[in-house]
Amino acid sequence: MPGRASRRDRIDPLRDYAEAMSGPIPDYLVEVERQTYLKTVAPQMMSGRLQGRLLALLSKLQQPARILEIGTFTGYATLCLAEGLGEAGRVDTIEGDAEVAFWARRNFAASPFANRIDLHLGQANEVLNRLAGPYDVIFLDGDKRGYPDYLPFLLSRLRVGGLLLADNVLWDGRAGGKIRDEDAAALQTYNELVYQNKRLENLILPLRDGLAVARLRE
Asked: What are the chain's domains?
């Protein structure tokens, strides 16, 4: 919830040490983080430094020609993923909030990837119909209740061997727990659908708010 501290933002010495030993982090990303905390009411929605380094590393291992992101926010995760782009690779990222999209565009312009990121302003279910695959990496970080509905469409746009990443899949520990809200219930459904899909290899990392990493098999 905007303005509410979550478990992922509380002090954790192990996480803080792991974060301190992970890097290097480009200067432009440090500035994105600073501006996000200065200019937005819910900075906890931004991918943290440790998760950002993981996204960057996964992308570098994949060397994607095309990346799709649903839920840009201020562009921190977008820029982390862009670090691994192959030669002439591009990112399509979708954001429904015009205010944060404004800041994302500014952040992209100040990065080395200014001409390789296409930000689409609008609702994901509408924008996705205009985007053709295949994508090498897809990062799902938008409307949590929409995750289960997005899944079939995203798999149709993902190339074999590609990665489907999904953020917030643990939802402060409520996904899979006894006390759930509609978001947690939807995320639990998404997790189960991915786990049951025989074409996917899946790993859920208890990193920050939960990051699911799935690979599409033959």
From this structure: 7-216 (3.40.50.150)
